[in-house]
Amino acid sequence: MEQSSPQQASQQASTAHRICPFCEAACGLEVELSQGQVTRVRGDQADVFSAGFLCPKAVGLKDLHEDGDRLRTPLIKRNGVFEPTSWDEAYAEIERRLLPIIERDGGNAVATVLGNPVSHKMSLMLYFPKLAKALSTHNMFSASSVDQVPKMLSVGLMYGSWLSVPVPDIERSDFLLILGANPMVSNGSLWTVPDFRGKAKALRARGGRIVVVDPRRTETAEVADQHHFIRPGADVFFLLGLVHALFDEQLVKLGRLAGHVTGLEQLREAALPYAPETVAARCGIAATTMRELARTLAGTERAAVYGRIGTCTQQYGTLASWLIDVVNILTGHLDQEGGMMFPKAAAFAANTRGKPGSGRGVTSGRYRSRVSGAPEVVGELPITCLAEEIDTPGPGQVKALIAIAGNPVLSAPNGPRLAAALEQLEFMLSMDIYLNETSRHADVILPGVSPLEDAHYDVTFTQFSHRNHARYSPPVLARSAGQPDEWETLLRLVAILKGQGANADIAALDDALLREDLEKAVGPLTDTVMGMLAPQRGVQRLLDLGLRSGPYGDQFGRAPGGLTLAKIQAAPSGIDLGPMTQRIPEALRTPSGQIELAPQLLLDDLARVAADLAAPAADLVIIGRRQLRSNNSWMHNLPVLAKGAYRCTALVHPDDAARLQLADGGQATVRNGARQIEVQVEVSADMMPGVVSLPHGWGHNLPGTQMGVAAERPGVNLNVLLDENLRDPLSGNAVLSGVPITMAPLQ
Ligand SMILES: Nc1nc2c(c(=O)[nH]1)N[C@H]1C(S)=C(S)[C@@H](COP(=O)(O)OP(=O)(O)OC[C@H]3O[C@@H](n4cnc5c(=O)[nH]c(N)nc54)[C@H](O)[C@@H]3O)O[C@H]1N2
Ligand SMILES: Nc1nc2c(c(=O)[nH]1)N[C@H]1C(S)=C(S)[C@@H](COP(=O)(O)OP(=O)(O)OC[C@H]3O[C@@H](n4cnc5c(=O)[nH]c(N)nc54)[C@H](O)[C@@H]3O)O[C@H]1N2
Ligand code: SF4
Ligand SMILES: [Mo]
């Protein structure tokens, strides 16, 4: 069934379904095809989750598929020049060069780095763990530490698993407080919510209100009822002010969570020094506004506080992430309809596995990075430590790198240092679809498939969806001859690492790995389960296992009528599993079986906040911004998205522009110590005075890349300016927001 539909599609006009892989909204799309060519991409009106919504990026699927710069064969670098090669030769080269490094220096000499698209690719999500296990290195890095790891740490400590992130139940909510997120542009993050605009409009139409707290009057602020500027990095003060006010005005009401929460008294004490009147100057929001917001939250039956990347990528990322949940809990909105609720994903969610109600909880800091001593979190080290692990000699130095769907030379602070470090590696392998700023440093590049050529199920984003559902996309088009699926490529690497050689029988290896996992999970039932899964192979088989053993699954016959892969394959627009439902205490995996309201690690970190309370505002600081027709660093080569006005501009408030003599449209230098970039100024009253906004992911003018469209208008790389040594000490997340700069007109 799977095999025949793409082939048929290449013969005649047809329509196929594909979940969009470009952002977390995960919209269901209809792809119209004729003669094997994409003729049109539109929203699938029948999709049970996204109901026809799509954004301009979706059309980029066609451009991406057809992009002449997209890699279609492996490349090997010989004498500094990339040459196309066969898959066999590429694997042989990897075996020849990688294994001796591991034999000599051990697994820790090899680092891995994963980029954002991994979370949008079922193959990479489900098979990378096998590579990690075979490699066994402490030096694992990913885009998580320039993104959401503070939230993972805070929810891990509070609820007991890393991905137990509550999300706004927007369709039943009457009040939304949004901090450091711009879902009108990003389409939602750690909150899978297609058509935020429509849902926000409906909320307001039923009398609800939206308040946005952001240093920029964003596109989301435009559709909200109220917007407040906040000093970048000061959310922790604002949120402590709210917590203080809730206790102070006796507004705390835990409701049905009362018996499931521990640490209330410690929390009250911790917030005592932070009266709204005390923190107002530090965060830039009036005490009366804070008190009013506290009262509104406490007095509205269905309300939610949501924060995203602006609250994570800053020096108090973990504390701010924690306090957002604290405010929801204190006002009775966690795990309540119209508040913040826990999705129940159909497969792969840790909070649906094991004994309901308690568990081992999470631990961080099981080991530390060699050079800076940064703690491990979620099995990873901060990506801002990668360069120093490569360029600092000594025992344990990283000598080789496997980079998968990541572009840290642009996406991580101090890209130039990382680029130089990558050149020092003895061996680097990239799995990527472009020869770009990062993969140009590789010795071997193995191309990934076009999203139209692989099957998809949202392993990650079903875990953050505002409504439970299960959807599956078979490949829209057949893969070109010889091109493996990405899970097959990963298995081939596992075979190499296990010493089975590049020519190993990977189907047999796949069976053996699955058998190993099943023996641990179901013991004597292993053969029966293997037998029942047998019709599926590879990644589909793992998905079938996840679905069938998941909370809606058929439990291999014990719950007849339950979900199986076959069942979702038969529903091209997906299966709706209903709105979120109450999950406390069942979803908890903390050792105490309670919500930990005041984890000691977090209380201890408040010492930094206390010391910082009187810090004067820097004259000028920089923050980031996302753009609708762009996705981090890698969609600037798609003509349909790249066209239009120049977008990599630095937004500057008119008062700052006047005082610094910066002209609208003029060029300016931006400095952070010795680091410097040149930008085009856009004067904008939407900025908070003293704050400049520049998008990230640009800077496509580096030599040795092959992205012709992107190179025409390269933009500048914000991360050249940012300091790789600035991290939230608890999570290791990079500080990307609120970094002091100076600006001057370019003479
Ligand atoms: N200053 C600043 N920096 C930031 C941010 C910020 O807000 N400000 N945001 C951060 C955030 S949230 C994130 S998530 C990171 C992203 O950081 P990265 O993940 O490092 O960056 P991307 O630009 O998403 O790069 C994705 C890479 O995957 C490749 N790719 C795309 N699709 C596929 C595929 O199907 N298979 C394979 N094998 N490769 C593929 C692309 O060619 C590209 O090389 O950037 C971070 N950097
Ligand atoms: N079109 C598009 N969509 C995307 C992406 C993209 O590049 N383009 N990237 C995807 C990725 S990888 C992610 S992680 C998500 C991110 O999703 P969002 O978090 O919604 O993304 P942003 O638009 O960066 O919104 C962050 C907001 O935080 C504000 N901010 C900055 N510093 C602070 C601060 O200190 N405090 C507060 N309160 N606010 C602050 C910024 O002004 C900005 O408006 O978007 C995803 N979706
Ligand atoms: S909102 Fe995101 S998932 Fe939906 S079409 Fe746009 S890029 Fe794709
Ligand atoms: Mo991200």
Automatic annotation (TrEMBL):
Alphabetical list of InterPro entries matching this protein: Asp_de-COase-like_dom_sf, MoPterin_dinucl-bd_dom, Mopterin_OxRdtase, Mopterin_OxRdtase_4Fe-4S_dom, Prok_Mopterin_Oxidored
Keywords associated with the record: Iron, Iron-sulfur, Metal-binding
Record domain 4Fe-4S Mo/W bis-MGD-type: where: 13-69
Pfam families named among the record's database cross-references: Molybdop_Fe4S4, Molybdopterin, Molydop_binding
Metal-binding recorded as keyword: yes
A single GO molecular function term of this UniProt record: oxidoreductase activity
UniProt family annotation: Belongs to the prokaryotic molybdopterin-containing oxidoreductase family.
Protein name as annotated: Molybdopterin-dependent oxidoreductase
